[in-house]
Amino acid sequence: MNTDIMTIKEVAAYLKLTEKTAYRLTAEGKIPGFKVGGSWRFKKADIEQWIEKQKAEKN
Q1: Closest C-alpha to 7, from 45, 35, 49, 30
Q2: CB neighbours (10 Å) of residue 24?
Q3: Are 11 and 22 in contact (CB under 8 A)?
Q4: pTM of the predicted model as reported, rounded to 2 decimal places
C-alpha cells in the first residue's frame, strides 16, 4: 500500500532507527508526527521536510 501517512514502524525503517528511538524522538517533539487514537502517524512530506531542515542546520 503506497500512502503518504506512515506508522512509527515505517518511519523508523525510513530513518534507519530503532522503533524505540523513533518513539522517543517523536515524544520529545524532535520528529514531526501526530496521534490518531493513541497511535503515532507521520506525513511522509513532513518527514522529508524535517530531513532537509536537519541537513540545512548542519551547514
Answers
A1: 35
A2: 13
A3: yes
A4: 0.86
Calculate ∠ Cα 54-5-26, nearest 5°.
45
Contact present, 8 and 40 (Cβ < 8 Å)? yes
Output the DSSP codes for 4-41: SEEEHHHHHHHHT--HHHHHHHHHTTSS--EEETTEEE
Contact between 31 and 42 under an 8 Å Cβ cutoff? The reply is: yes
Mean pLDDT lowest among 2-11, 22-31, 32-41: 2-11
Write out the three cell numbers for 5. 501517512
